[in-house]
Specification:
Chain A has about 130 residues and is an all-alpha fold. Chain A is built from eight helices and no strands. Chain A has two domains: about 90 residues, Orthogonal Bundle (Fumarate Reductase Iron-sulfur Protein, Chain B, domain 2), CATH 1.10.1060; about 30 residues, no CATH class.
Chain lengths: ~130, ~260
């Protein structure tokens, strides 16, 4: 029951239609971060289909996806893998104490050229 | 023609040039950018989760304000443009979202009808590259310029409607209009590393490095972008070999818009 509940939540937040996936792998082939990912975009879709959501919520891929939308653009079946990854990321950071970035880290990460856009987008992706 | 104009957070701080050059060029080209009153930061990334509402409100307020003035809304930053274009699309298509937003603030009775244009689209679709070419005072003759599109202007193509997401030409046509030589290269629509450069600068550097290498291999000696984060990530890697500029810098140079470098 627990597994079904989280799978349904993941799919609802993502708006992704994973049943359309034909496992061609073009999402992972297009992904500029695939080498840094422990669960690559095409695998992410399969994990979701199998209800292995706990593994997705613990994987490092959540923090490697760049939301560059290459996988969404190039998917021949309009599955939207990046939205699935975003949904899992949101399910993690919406939990108390599970943010991926802490404001106290920021001074150590700054240099004079960092654009505000970088700080805003990182906070949006890594923290609730 | 007068447009509602949304500069966004970075154009008021680290990317002031992008803003100043665009305003100076607009004056030469004969259109007006009327800054939106009391705008808020758009959030820089489009909220992808289907149940995200609050994070879309700043964009909705701005779009509504432009709509009330019957003006199209113009942006310059790729990230802002992406957010506004997609939130606008949500508001046009999603009845439930519109109702939720209205329930929160009944003043926000907005149905996604404001036209959202990137400054480059104003140049192409309203001014026209032919007219732009005729107004060039200092043609960029002999300069080999690579357009760096990045991600957010182009994808997803169906919503962004900016250009062909895999084989865009709008920036190259812009370079040609200014008298320069556009240099297309394979990585021009690949990611620079984006927000990952805050916590993992090395990985972002690898991605920006591929973009630079791809452009240099095809003979580009300078790059242009519309995105402050692309500019940051690429220039951190470039170390002066292949400089990257905002596209509006080329515009003021070619138009002789009264700015010294």
């Amino acid at each position: 029951m627990h597994s079904n509940h989280t799978k349904n939540e993941l799919l609802a937040i993502s708006g992704a239609d994973i049943d359309r996936c034909m496992k061609c792998g073009r999402c992972s082939a297009s992904c500029p971060s695939h080498q840094a990912m422990d669960i690559r975009p095409h695998q992410f879709v399969s994990y979701a289909a199998d209800g292995r959501v706990d593994a997705l919520l613990e994987c490092n891929s959540l923090w490697q996806c760049l939301s560059c939308f290459a996988c969404i653009q190039r998917c021949p079946r309009d599955v939207k893998p990046a939205q699935l990854i975003e949904a899992a990321r949101l399910m993690v950071i919406r939990q108390q104490g599970e943010n991926y970035i802490d404001p106290d880290e920021i001074p150590g990460l700054l240099n004079n050229d960092v654009p505000q856009q970088l700080l805003v987008s990182a906070f949006r992706k890594y923290r609730k | 023609m007068t447009y509602s104009y949304y500069p966004g957070c970075t154009l008021k701080t680290k990317a002031k040039d992008l803003d100043h050059f665009a305003r100076a060029s607009a004056a030469v080209l004969g259109f007006t950018l009327e800054e939106i009153d009391e705008w808020q930061c758009c959030g820089a990334v489009y909220p992808l989760g289907t149940d995200e509402v609050v994070s879309k409100l700043p964009a909705i307020r701005v779009l509504h304000q432009a709509g009330q003035k019957n003006q199209a809304m113009v942006t310059l930053c790729s990230a802002c443009h992406h957010v506004f274009k997609r939130v606008n699309d949500d508001m046009r298509r999603d009845v439930d979202l519109r109702r939720t937003v209205r329930n929160y603030d009944k003043e926000l009775d907005y149905d996604g009808t404001t036209e959202v244009l990137h400054y480059m689209e104003v140049l192409q679709r309203h001014v026209g590259f032919g007219v732009l070419k005729a107004k060039v005072q200092n043609p960029l003759t002999g300069r080999k310029i690579g357009a760096y599109y990045g991600c957010m202007l182009l994808r997803p193509g169906g919503v962004m409607d900016f250009d062909d997401p895999e084989n865009p030409t709008i920036f190259e046509d812009f370079i040609t209009a200014l008298g320069g030589t556009p240099v297309p290269y394979p990585y021009r629509n690949e990611c620079c590393g984006g927000y990952i450069s805050l916590k993992e600068a090395e990985k972002a550097g690898q991605m920006a490095g591929k973009v630079l290498e791809s452009a240099a291999n095809r003979g580009a000696t300078e790059l242009i972008t519309a995105c402050p984060l692309c500019l940051y990530n690429v220039s951190k890697k470039a170390a002066g070999d292949v400089p990257i500029y905002y596209f509006t810098r080329l515009l003021v140079e070619a138009l002789d818009a009264g700015i010294d470098f």
